[in-house]
Specification:
single chain, Rossmann fold, alpha/beta
Length: 226
């Protein structure tokens, strides 16, 4: 197995019922440590699906709106479909304990674009225990990167355990940091159980197809449409 090989979804559950509990668009939280590839993942997803569905994004940063600027610079989502929030303090607070800022941002996006089908909510970079409030999002993706170390999946933080999709990004860096992808896969299988996970190298889009497959099958359920 090469470090850059794209990996298939592992142990994906069978039919997962769509569980949107909010009126309006489906809300997908994207969490993970700083630099893991959260913003890049949203950019790649919106690029791949921009002709199929109506999307928008809310980004959370502590004292800047840098991630919102990065998304806007890519030119896939128009600037009026991106809201950047400066949360201050601990970034996980705005996605779990007090989600009012994010709720207001989503409402603003829906008012601007009543046709919205999906809104991504990107958390500020945080620790392995950060999770989204079920009152804020319908589904969540948790992203780590290989450069953080082979042992990260073994730590099994709540973000990795409870997310609907777990993504291990930057597989191309494995040989440079001495990480064994087979070990990371084995450890992920232990704590993920029947929940899906995949490996990606978003720099070259390797493995992105598995993320898109999960979105279509488990979130949008487009493969059930006649």
């Amino acid at each position: 197995m090469t470090a850059t090989a794209s990996r298939t979804l592992v142990d994906r559950p069978g039919e997962q019922a769509a569980r949107s509990q909010h009126p309006g668009p489906i809300r997908i939280g994207v969490g993970g440590p700083v630099g893991a590839g959260k913003t890049q993942l949203i950019e790649r997803i919106t690029r791949a699906l921009s002709r199929e569905i109506s999307m928008a994004a809310v980004t959370n940063d502590i004292y800047t709106i840098e991630d919102a600027k990065i998304l806007a610079a890519q030119g896939i989502l128009p600037v009026d479909r991106i809201v950047g929030l400066e949360t201050g303090g601990c970034p996980h607070t705005a996605i779990r304990e007090d989600t009012s800022m994010n709720e207001a941002a989503i409402a603003e996006l829906v008012e601007r674009h009543p046709d919205l089908e999906v809104v991504f909510v990107e958390s500020g970079g945080d620790n392995l225990s950060a999770t989204f409030s079920p009152e804020l999002v319908d589904f969540s993706i948790y992203v780590i990167d290989v450069a953080q170390g082979e042992k990260i999946p073994r730590k099994a933080g709540q973000g990795m355990i409870k997310s609907d999709l777990f993504v291990i990004n930057k597989t191309d860096l494995a040989p440079h940091v001495g990480a064994d992808l087979a070990v990371m896969e084995a450890d992920s299988k232990v704590f993920r159980g029947d929940r899906p996970f995949c490996f990606t190298n978003l720099k070259t889009d390797e493995g992105l197809d598995h993320v898109i497959e999960w979105l279509r099958h488990d979130v949008l359920m487009t493969d059930l449409e006649s």
